[in-house]
């Protein structure tokens, strides 16, 4: 006699096929090159940029009556996007272990519990860093021949992320504490003057902890500026892995690998 509590095999097969079909469609949308997929990826990119703009402005909007509604709406969008990207991945467990995904999950947690993670809300700007690692951003740029500027664009993004993360931290930790920081703009002003080592001295973080924070901002900030300057003023290089030794960065007109001397055949457009 058949077990009445056991679901029919056809239902199980139908569920598996339905899930496989959903994953296949999501994979085509997130990683495909069809006009429909490109429109979807462009929409995702615009939404991500809008979310990042909200994260940058959130210190100024936190007292607004609509702040929590926007916060939870973004949490729902980010949760939906994370779930869809996880289903679209070939190896979900390996995908979950990637640093950008871990950062996105942490950002989602701060959105779901904004009052508990109030002091960590400034870390949401790391979403800009995770977005800069996405193929959705770089695929259209590479198709337009801008792939050789990837390192420079990445350096600019790293600098902006550091700037706004530090500004959020300074605002959260030192506002209204006799540091001369009365608002978010003051925190941004202090961060910029410290990063550039201008140091006007009109705003000074109090105590030993404040001095240590200032030292860290100066060291990392000037390092990021130097890195950006190197990428802007040095000759552009192309990405083309050497078949012999694997060196991937070469001059656009290179004929031989400078590391091993192997003959290279770099495409004329300079992007592989």
From TrEMBL:
Gene Ontology cellular-component terms listed: voltage-gated potassium channel complex
Q: For this entry, list what GO says about its biological process.
A: action potential
Q: A single Gene Ontology molecular function, please?
A: voltage-gated potassium channel activity
Question: Which residues are the signal sequence here?
Answer: none
Q: What is this protein called?
A: Ion transporter
Predominant place of localization: membrane
The UniProt record lists the keyword GTP-binding: no
Organism, scientific name? Devosia elaeis
Give the transmembrane region(s): 37-61, 67-87, 99-118, 153-174, 212-233
């Amino acid at each position: 006699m058949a077990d009445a509590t056991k679901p029919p095999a056809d239902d199980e097969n139908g569920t598996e096929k339905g899930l496989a079909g959903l994953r296949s469609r999501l994979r085509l949308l997130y990683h495909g090159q069809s006009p429909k997929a490109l429109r979807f990826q462009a929409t995702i990119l615009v939404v991500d940029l809008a979310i990042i703009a909200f994260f940058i402005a959130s210190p100024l909007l936190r007292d607004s009556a609509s702040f929590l509604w926007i916060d939870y709406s973004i949490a729902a969008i980010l949760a939906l996007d994370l779930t869809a990207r996880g289903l679209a991945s070939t190896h979900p467990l390996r995908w979950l272990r990637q640093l950008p995904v871990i950062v996105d999950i942490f950002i989602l947690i701060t959105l779901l519990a904004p009052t508990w993670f109030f002091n960590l809300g400034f870390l949401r700007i790391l979403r800009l860093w995770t977005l800069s690692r996405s193929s959705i951003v770089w695929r259209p740029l590479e198709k337009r021949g801008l792939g050789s500027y990837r390192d420079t664009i990445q350096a600019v993004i790293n600098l902006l992320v550091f700037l706004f993360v530090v500004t959020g931290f300074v605002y959260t930790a030192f506002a209204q504490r006799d540091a001369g920081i009365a608002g978010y703009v003051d925190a941004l002003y202090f961060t910029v003057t410290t990063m550039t080592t201008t140091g006007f001295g009109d705003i000074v973080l109090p105590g030993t902890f404040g001095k240590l924070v200032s030292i860290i901002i100066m060291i990392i900030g000037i390092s990021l500026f130097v890195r950006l300057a190197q990428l802007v003023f040095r000759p552009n290089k192309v990405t083309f892995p050497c078949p012999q030794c694997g060196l991937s960065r070469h001059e656009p007109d290179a004929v031989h690998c400078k590391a091993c001397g192997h003959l290279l055949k770099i495409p004329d457009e300079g992007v592989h």
